[in-house]
Design goal:
The structure is a homodimer. The first copy, chain A, is of the alpha+beta class. Chain A has three domains: about 90 residues, Rossmann fold (3-Layer(aba) Sandwich); about 55 residues, Dna Ligase, domain 1; about 200 residues, ATP-grasp fold, B domain (D-amino Acid Aminotransferase, Chain A, domain 1, 2-Layer Sandwich), CATH 3.30.470.20. Chain A contains ten helices and 19 strands.
């Protein structure tokens, strides 16, 4: 380890990397990010930036050798190259062997099986089998094995007629869960195997683009459901021998059955509320775990509701924030902006978090603010 | 105002500027700092840096013209030049007319008189009068009118024998208050005149160097004292017509009398605890006020104790943090590092904040951590 200050390399320079960099900088940890965009969100906060795509082995080796520890803010990176580097020196967290299981939704299902946690039933459907696809029941869900993100790579077949629009890629066919709520939990695990679980939260999606839009913390669910989600989260991160923070998304049905949907080996949109509402933010927690530092408390200090600020659907170009002054008049509202160089419809441009005495009142304020604050483009 | 994102210039690039820059960046506010040191703490977080001393009129004009608003993290800057710029366009907050009153401790006393708040009795003592100085009572306090900072510029005369060691500068001679506690409060005021008061806190000083060492929030004082401090703080910021955050330091005597000691027109060491413990940190609050945005809630969410991490007294040179891993094992402890390029005895290198259910338990944890975490120099 660097004698003076820890050096952390982050593959990916998006908003998650940016928010990690803030927390790392706060603690005096040196940050080097790697991203194809020299003006990526993390570029304004990192100490240095390697401009590179996520598959360039030379550049991945460079960030690996420059830093004491390596993490990433995106799954779609060269896990093969990282595995080779990890074999030389195991300083990439979560390990690339975990990453490669998460990159492929079929291998993710195997994680759930090994951890003995409930997940929707599934079967494999290779690209060449799609033409002859048949199902006895509808709806069913087709999920691309690789490359899905923010709603991309998921297709719901409501009837045989939808077959023509199926994704033309190696896939899973998954049981459709008629859920009442979508839940999420952030679970952190350190190198000694200590686990800290954040509160269970509710995710509310923007149906237009299937992007997690609003998170309410804590979730309005029974104690029984909380316990069930906690034990699922623990089983998964323990089974993975994971180091770092993991975002775990779940379905909750009307009869209180819980199913794991998918997991992410990094800070997660559904954990942004932790910045204001928990003792230790998900970003600091991840950095602590990755850098071999002890985990902080994951306690909720105050209820919170977070909403993404998506690029306005009729604007593309250089971004312009409107309504900020008016929105900040709402008591308990905090604004985060990612400094992306251009906006486009539904792009995640920032987020707001409202802390309040109850989730319900915070929810009202967030809904109000979402109508006020917009990211449009300059004329 | 910049159509896309607000631009804020900060004169000074020390730790206060650095922590302002974090909060500004979070909200998407563009930060330009001005500091003589190209490797100052803010340099790693600001979007741009003007390397300049604080008196260069050309460079002050440059930062003024480059940005929508201007603030500062240090009082020892060219108020005359800033007044001329302010007269062209009043976009410097707190206004340089307030700054010049605060720069001179004699003029500060006039603020307290105008605001009708209790402060220690004083008389003026010019440099040329020092040779013939006499006092009927001891101890008395000599304060340099200008340039004092972190305990410099203050001298306590315990007896006539101390006369030989008096500061050779234009001064005040001030009544010595036999205080039981030193208190502080952060008061924020926006352009519409709205005021938000943070909790009253206790400051505990390191006697070796007279640097505020530990802050406990809230202060362990009666409701009567809290009310008195609140009304003093309100009277001062209103009387100043101040915009921004002000740190107000006070003395509390055994019989619950409160006296204002001095004020700072900026975030203050005694307000660092607000990052973890209050809904809105003092840094975000200051930026909101200066940039014409509405103030956030100043509510305390959880008790906290903050301690400075000073450079170890026997080390000078390239800094090395030791004990961080061990210290972070303390539940509720958060570490902030300022990334100064060199350490020296008693230099403010970082701080820790412990949040806990009570100030007393947080205090114990902070005391424990101060013995663990050190900033020394590399061999």
């Amino acid at each position: 380890m660097n004698p003076t200050r820890i050096k952390l390399g982050i593959i990916g320079g998006g908003q998650l990397s940016r928010m990690m960099a803030f927390e790392a900088q706060k603690m005096g940890i040196y940050i080097e990010a790697l991203d194809p965009d020299p003006k990526c969100p993390a570029s304004y906060v990192a100490n240095s930036l390697i401009v590179s795509d996520f598959y360039n082995e030379e550049h991945l080796a460079k960030i690996f050798h420059n830093n004491d520890f390596i993490t990433y803010d995106i799954e779609h990176i060269n896990a093969e190259a990282l595995k080779k580097l990890y074999d030389k020196e195991p300083k990439i967290f979560p390990s690339p062997y975990i990453l490669e299981q998460i990159q492929d939704k079929l291998l993710q299902k195997k994680i759930f099986e090994r951890a003995k946690v409930p997940a929707p039933a599934y079967r494999k459907l290779d690209k060449n089998e799609i033409e002859n696809f048949e199902s006895d029941i509808y709806p069913v869900v087709q999920k691309s094995r690789k490359g899905g993100y923010d709603g991309r790579g998921v297709f719901v077949l409501k009837s045989p007629a939808d077959k023509a629009n199926m994704l033309k890629t190696d896939s899973l066919i998954e049981e459709y869960i008629d859920f009442e709520k979508e839940l999420a939990i952030m679970a952190a695990r350190d190198k000694e195997g200590n686990i800290k679980l954040y509160p269970v939260v509710e995710m509310i999606f923007d149906d237009r683009v299937n992007i997690c839009d609003i998170t309410s913390a804590p979730a309005r669910v029974s104690e029984k459901v909380v316990k069930e989600v906690n034990s699922i989260a623990e089983a998964i991160v323990e089974n993975l021998d994971g180091v770092g923070i993991f975002g775990i998304e779940l379905f909750l049905t009307g009869d209180e059955k819980v199913y794991v949907n998918e997991i992410a080996p990094r800070p997660h949109n559904s954990g942004h509320y932790t910045i204001e509402a928990c003792k230790t933010s998900q970003f600091e927690q991840h950095i602590r775990a990755v850098c071999g530092l002890p985990l902080g408390s994951a306690d909720l200090v105050i209820p919170a509701v977070m909403a993404n600020i998506l690029g306005d659907e009729s604007h593309t170009g250089k971004p312009l924030i409107t309504g900020l002054k008016e929105a900040l008049q709402i008591e308990g509202l905090y604004f985060h902006y990612y400094c992306k160089s251009s906006t486009k419809p539904f792009r995640k441009m920032g987020h707001i978090t409202v802390v309040d005495n109850s989730v319900d009142s915070a929810f009202k304020k967030v809904s109000q603010a979402k109508n006020i604050i917009k990211v449009i483009s300059e004329k």
